[in-house]
Amino acid sequence: MVVIGMVAGLTLNNANIPIISNAKNSIEERENTMTKVKHYMALDYGIGRCVATAGSFDGKRLALEMMHRFDVKSTTMLGTSYWDFPAMLIHAKRGLYSFTARHGKDLGGVGINSWAGDFGLLDKTGQLLSNPINFLNTYKMGYNQKLHNIFPHRSLYQRTGVQSRREITLYQLFAMAQMDSPLLDKAVTMLLLADLVSYFLTGTPVQEYTLATTSGMYDPEIKDWSRDIILGANIPPIMVPEIVAPGTVIGPLLDSVAVEVGLGQTPVIAPASHGTAGALAAVPAKGNDWLCITSGFWNQVTMELANPIINDASFAAEFSNLGGVDGTTRLQREILGMGGIEECIKLWSREDARDISMGEILRLSESVEPLERVVNLGDPKLVVVGRRPETVNEILNKTGQPAICTRGEMVRMFLDSLVLSQRHAINQMREVTGRRFDTMHFVGRGVNFAPLGQALADATGMTVKAGPVEAKSVGNIVMQMMALGDLGSLSDARDLVSRSFDVAEYTPKNRAMWDDAYEKYFKMLK
């Protein structure tokens, strides 16, 4: 496939990974030349929700304005759960239309980011063959072990640097091949979710680098798709498109889309299309002695590296090596995050026949004694959507802990378990990298709940800097700005974030309680 609209200044770093070179000498130089506010649009697709956010840059600071927000829903039909992609696209357009209704046509760019794993298949005419399948289906069908009979788990990790997890695209495609899915016979192109949305806005199919590296089919050694893995899993090789760098200008909105939403030839940009990679770009960090926790449905304990770490220690600690921005690699561990609580909220909302907010539920936890119950959030039983409360009590019973009787106790258990799980991942990251990490940046949904930030500081002994909340959208926007020459470097982008958004700071206060709890938690993991 021919990739069009590559951004000017695209170069290769010494690791041969595409990066965006500095567009101008400094951000101060551009501030002196800017005479009007510039606008950008981030479409942030997360599991359960999507937010269309406009970013306005006045030459000094970036301000956010939510244009549209909607639930991302899946529907189960004959035992298979599908994402409602037409609705996802309709609401993306509503977000763009909301911008034009408020600000007119002066939109500098549009970028889309999403979660990893899920994808759409296009036929030879460019039409979508089926709604994307929810990744949890493949996990339930149990094809992981069959794939490991072809590619042993450790061998696959050595080739890709990616842990075998339920959402990995490779496992989904392998399951389809094992079931002789007719979709694979008709598919010409596979696009992961963010790039699928971009395709239907521009008509140009490309696969952005950070999202491609999550698929389990990218080989960091050759810096391209692994044809051996794809063929070995019986996946048609024609399906994988050429990979483009974060910060690539894909092309303008299709004329039909532009007319529908009231815009002109607005460029669509592949930012860091994997949401966590974009969030890391929005971390207001200085220096190198820091790591980051991104908070969402899944929490990611992550850091930037110059090169991947793929060895027995990183494999045993369940770290993945994923593409980052500016030529970096993300060393990352995934943990069930706010999703455990969100699933409970859905259940309780149905029971009460009303909408229950996250804020309401988190407040219930504040009156519960901390650390009375903890579970291993890596337990596969907790992946089963829709029955987490009863599953938790089954786990507590097996580990000799008291059953949960109230909603506040359930939420407290999830929060305490999340903090201890993240402390464990941080300890392992220190062992694998040999680095200390005095500072933790904490971004995403959990930032709004101050007790969680303080608990992270107490449990880890680290200074925690919390914010911005909408890091994925902010990262999306600053990557657009880099692509269009409005920011010159990742350092410029982080400086802009630092002076544009409030960051709360938490220092350790009560370590002894968490040290005792961690010792018990660590024994539970063995």
Estimated share of beta-strand residues: 15-25%
End-to-end C-alpha gap: 49 Å
Helical residue percent? 40-55%
Count of distinct strands? 23
Contiguous uncertain segments of 5+ residues? 1-34
- Report the total helices: 21
Overall geometric form: globular
Sheet having the most strands? 7 strands, mixed
Compute the CA-based radius of gyration: 22 Å
Decide which structural class fits the backbone.
alpha+beta
Mean pLDDT: 90
What strand order characterises the main sheet? 19-20-18-17-21-22-23
How would you characterize this protein structure?
The protein is α+β, with helices and mostly antiparallel strands and 526 residues long. The protein contains 21 helices and 23 strands. Strands 19-20-18-17-21-22-23 form a seven-stranded mixed sheet, sandwiched between helices. A hairpin with a 4-residue loop joins strand 12 (218-219) and strand 13 (224-225). The chain starts with 9 loop residues before the first strand and ends with a helix. Mean pLDDT is 90; it is low at 1-34.
